## 1
Amino acid sequence: MIECNKCKAQINLKVKEERIPGTELDAQYIQCEECKKKYIVLLKDGKTKAMLLRAKNMQARYRRMHGRKNVAEVEAYRKHMENYQRTIQRYQLQLRNNNKNLIKDYL
Ligand SMILES: [Zn+2]
C-alpha cells in the first residue's frame, strides 16, 4: 500500500484515467479517497499511446517465439524489448518535464 503524502491515509491503488482539460494529454492516476489528492501514474500523449501499443505487440511476438526460435534469437529479442521499455520511460520523463505546469495537481 502507498501512503498519501498529504493526509497520510492509505491510497487505493485502482488506476483511473482522465483527459487534462484543454490538452490532448490523458493522465492515469491513483487518488487518495480521504483528501482526494491525485498522484500521476502515467502521462499519455499520442506518441506514448503508439509506443505502448508497439510494446504490447512486441510482448505478444516474444511469447510466440518461445519454443519455435532458437534461444539466442529469443534472448536477443528480449533485450530489444527491454531497450524499448527504457525508451518509453525516457520519453515519459521528458513528457512530464515538458508539461510540468499541467500536471502539478497530480504530483
Ligand atoms: Zn490524502
Note: Residues 46-102 form one domain.
## 2
Amino acid sequence: MEPHHDLIWDDETAEWYTEEYGDHFSTKLAVELAFFDKTDVVLDIGCGSGTSCRALAKKVSQGQVIGIDPTSGMIKIAKEKSTNDPYSSIIKYMDGRAESIPLDDGSVTVAMAVNSFYHWNDMGKGLAEVLRILKNNGRFYIADEKLEKGHTHGDGPNSDPAHIKLLLLDSGFVDVSLSNHRHGDEEMYFFSMIKK
Ligand SMILES: C[S@@+](CC[C@H](N)C(=O)[O-])C[C@H]1O[C@@H](n2cnc3c(N)ncnc32)[C@H](O)[C@@H]1O
C-alpha cells in the first residue's frame, strides 16, 4: 500500500481506493485477530467500502455491525457491496467521523479502526469519542499497515506505534497491547485495549 494519509477523500478517491485496496489483507486479518461474542454491537470507524464490516457480521451474527465514514462515496459503495451479503440485515452504514460519532454514550461493546486511525483529523478527540460510545469493559482495536523502519502511515510522532501506544494510555484505555503481523512482504500492527 502506498502512503496516502494526505488524500482528500471524495467520490473519486473512494472508487480508486476500493479498487486498489478494498480487499487489502488487513481488512480481514484485523477482524480475525480481535475477540468477539456473537451478540456484540460493533462499530467500524472509517469503514470505507465495508470489507471489515462484512467479515465482522459473520462473527457477531446475533449482534449488530455499524460502519461509519465521512466520505459519502465510501458509504454508497459499502451499501452496494453489502446488499447481497448473507448478514446484511445486521449491518448498518452511517455518515460519521471519529471526532463526532453519531451514537449514544455506552451504546457499543466493540469499536475498530482499520487503516483509518492515521486519517483522523484529531486523534485525541476521536479517542475521547470512542471512550464515550463504548460500554465499560468494551474493547477497541486499531489495525494499520507498517511501512519501512517500523513506522506506519501518518506524520511525525503519530506514525510511530510506540508513540501511539502512549497516546492510547494517556487517553484512558487500559490493557493496551501491540502486536505485529506479517503477510508476505507486508506487515500490519494491531492494538488491542479495553475501556474500564
Ligand atoms: C484507508 S481508508 C480505509 C477504509 C477501510 N477501513 C479499509 O481498511 O479498507 C480510510 C478511511 O477513513 C475515512 N476517514 C477519513 N477521515 C476520517 C475521520 N476523521 N474519521 C473516520 N474516518 C475517516 C476515509 O473516508 C476512508 O474511508
Note: The first helix runs from residue 11 to 21.
